[in-house]
Backbone:
């Protein structure tokens, strides 16, 4: 921690670079501004969206400063995008289809039926979703929710469902529609590596940054994530094939499954009675991530491009408006087709050219530097890297095909960061000398090199105050110059933590609803990830759970590995203890809400009951606040 927590102004070189952006792109093109305001019907009277106890989870006016001219501390292209995305309110897409935008990272879409409404993608938090639905009803009447549809398995498209629908209403017959595989991917992504993803998401969305010209101005795809109550109601109707049609409350829908694109479980929806196409998150007004900076499975740009081609083939001649669960619609059949074709070309070009360079022997870093996009795509605002970037997407493609290794044997067995940094700093003449020379590079505007070289000093000696301060200054300048919203947030959050100390993870991904939605197989898998292997090498513990109404499941911890086997047979070891109980009690024990010492009242135990406590004692908790910019 440096002691100085204040943001600094932009260096002259960053200011000049940002000013040059204004001459490079058509800022006088107002089409996006016109489209983003088209159909505006009004917004909420109160800017604050809060929990029942008054805790703010979203402020509609937090980005009012974006109405000002872009300052030197922000890339004008990102400033323009953030201004567009910050526009909030209820908008008519076409008669009968409405969107509430600017109430969360994503949009909520409402389609009017014969008796009520279909809600598509009810945001992240129940509070923002409820506020969005209330805004719709204030203009269109108090129509009941007659169906909910999740377009894909990311939390900003389902987490607020309990703000628009209750579990009792679902039980009474209100359908919840989702693509095949939705539930598995929705819960596993937020549990298996959820702690690490949440920590990095704090950087990606700039959660701890002040909102303002020198802080968080958006994330490209949307402004940021709301911080309210996250829930999940499992789907009751799966979409299993392209061409599947469903009619709900008189609303006709034709589905296109698009697995492996922006999410492992995703779909597009055509509304033939409205000549409207919902593109989920497969075509938005930016280049998307092939590997999100918070962490995820690498997405497939080849398949992504193919599905966009298929969307044009299936629906292009019957679509007069294309809209998505982020950003604003595109109106006009020809414009929609052009938009989809350019989005398709964006992912196809990145895929094909990265592979061409891979087969020429180029490494990920070399490809990222060499990649140039076609001028026609660069001129289109919606292809800019506000959320994904050409740089990190090419590296993702390399990773998808080639893995982490670039083929150079010198990189097979490198020292880890701290040990390598100590050696680098020693070779370069010591920490003070590195910082002295890095200051010269900073004065020359080479902030990228300063961040790279001073990082070694920080990891070799995290108490070196000058290095911490200089690294923070360099990261801050890189943030000011970035067109990519998530890069800006990463850089500025890194600077904040170097100056102030860790800010931690503001959200938890493993909500109670997610944990309840885990299958028992997934729950056992989640526990095995938490086994402290080295501490468990000598343990040999077997516990059999006889679950009411189901197969027995045997857990065995041996050689530092926790395995689970359902049923009985030669692969199942004799247990140290058997426990007969219902599934709710089993889940409570495994998730830590029911201590083993209190099991006797809810279970029948045969054998050594102490083995249950011993087994659970080999699990280590994840760390939601692990360090990132310091060792």
Residues:
């Amino acid at each position: 921690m440096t002691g100085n927590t204040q943001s600094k102004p932009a260096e002259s070189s960053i200011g000049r670079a940002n000013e040059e952006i204004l001459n490079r792109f058509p800022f006088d093109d107002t089409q996006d501004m016109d489209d983003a305001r088209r159909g505006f019907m009004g917004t909420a009277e109160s800017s604050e969206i809060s929990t029942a106890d008054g805790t703010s989870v979203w402020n509609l006016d937090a980005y009012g400063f974006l109405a000002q001219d872009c300052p030197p501390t922000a890339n004008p292209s990102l400033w323009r995008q953030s201004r567009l995305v910050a526009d909030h309110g209820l908008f008519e897409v076409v008669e009968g289809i409405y969107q509430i935008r600017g109430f969360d990272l994503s949009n909520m879409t409402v389609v009017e039926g014969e008796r009520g409404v279909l809600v598509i993608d009810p945001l992240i938090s129940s509070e923002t979703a409820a506020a969005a639905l209330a805004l719709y009803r204030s203009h269109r009447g108090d129509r009941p929710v007659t169906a909910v549809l999740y377009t894909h398995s990311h939390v900003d498209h389902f987490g607020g469902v309990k703000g628009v629908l209750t579990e009792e209403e679902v039980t009474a017959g209100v359908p919840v529609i989702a693509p095949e595989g939705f539930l598995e991917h929705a819960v596993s992504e937020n549990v298996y590596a959820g702690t690490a993803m949440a920590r990095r998401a704090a950087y990606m969305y700039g959660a701890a940054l002040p909102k303002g010209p020198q802080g968080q101005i958006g994330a490209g795809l949307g402004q940021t994530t709301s911080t309210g109550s996250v829930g999940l109601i499992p789907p009751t109707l799966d979409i299993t094939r392209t061409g599947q049609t469903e009619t709900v409350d008189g609303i006709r829908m034709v589905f296109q499954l698009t697995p492996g694109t922006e999410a492992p479980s995703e779909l597009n929806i055509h509304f033939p009675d409205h000549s409207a196409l919902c593109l989920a998150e497969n075509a938005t007004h930016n280049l998307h991530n092939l590997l999100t900076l918070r962490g995820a499975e690498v997405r497939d740009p080849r398949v992504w491009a193919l599905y966009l081609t298929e969307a044009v083939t299936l629906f292009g001649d019957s679509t007069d408006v294309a809209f998505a669960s982020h950003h604003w619609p595109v109106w006009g059949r020809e414009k929609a087709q052009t938009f989809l074709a350019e989005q398709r070309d964006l992912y196809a070009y990145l895929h094909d050219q990265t592979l061409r360079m891979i087969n020429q022997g180029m490494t990920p870093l070399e490809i990222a530097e060499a990649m140039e996009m076609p001028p026609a795509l660069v001129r289109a605002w919606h292809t800019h890297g506000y959320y994904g970037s050409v740089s990190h997407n090419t590296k993702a493609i390399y990773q998808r095909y080639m893995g982490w290794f670039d083929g150079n044997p010198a990189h097979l067995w490198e020292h880890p960061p701290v040990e390598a940094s100590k050696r680098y700093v020693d070779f370069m003449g010591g920490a003070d000398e590195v910082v002295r020379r890095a200051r010269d590079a900073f004065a020359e505007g080479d902030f990228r090199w300063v961040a790279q070289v001073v990082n070694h000093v920080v990891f070799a000696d995290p108490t070196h105050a000058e290095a911490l301060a200089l690294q923070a200054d360099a990261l801050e300048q890189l943030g000011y110059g970035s067109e990519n919203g998530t890069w800006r947030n990463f850089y500025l959050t890194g600077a904040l933590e170097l100056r102030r100390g860790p800010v931690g993870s503001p959200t938890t991904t493993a909500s109670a609803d997610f944990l309840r939605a885990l299958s028992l197989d997934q729950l056992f898998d989640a526990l095995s990830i938490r086994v402290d292997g080295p501490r468990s090498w000598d343990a040999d513990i077997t516990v059999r759970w006889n679950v009411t109404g189901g197969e027995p499941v045997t857990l065995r911890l041996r050689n530092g590995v926790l395995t689970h086997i359902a049923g009985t047979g030669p692969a199942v070891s004799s247990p140290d203890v058997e426990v007969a109980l219902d599934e709710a009690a089993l889940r409570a024990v495994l998730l830590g809400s029911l201590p083993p010492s209190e099991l006797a009242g809810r279970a029948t135990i045969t054998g050594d009951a102490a083995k249950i406590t011993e087994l659970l004692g080999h699990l280590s908790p994840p760390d939601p606040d692990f360090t990132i910019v310091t060792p």
